[in-house]
Specification:
It is built from two helices and two strands. The chain is an alpha+beta fold. Strands 1-2 form a two-stranded antiparallel ribbon. It is flat. Pfam families: SH3BGR. This is Chromosome 14 SCAF15003, whole genome shotgun sequence, Uncharacterized protein.
Length: 42
Amino acid sequence: LAGTPTALPPQICNDNVYCGDFEAFENAVEMELLENFLKIKK
């Protein structure tokens, strides 16, 4: 995602995997799905 001229900040990634933008992040927090959004395995 780094170096992509059309990507506007903030863009959230976990390693090299794109997770989403800030709006998707906020939605995940509100729905208590942050670990899913960040692609963190339990």
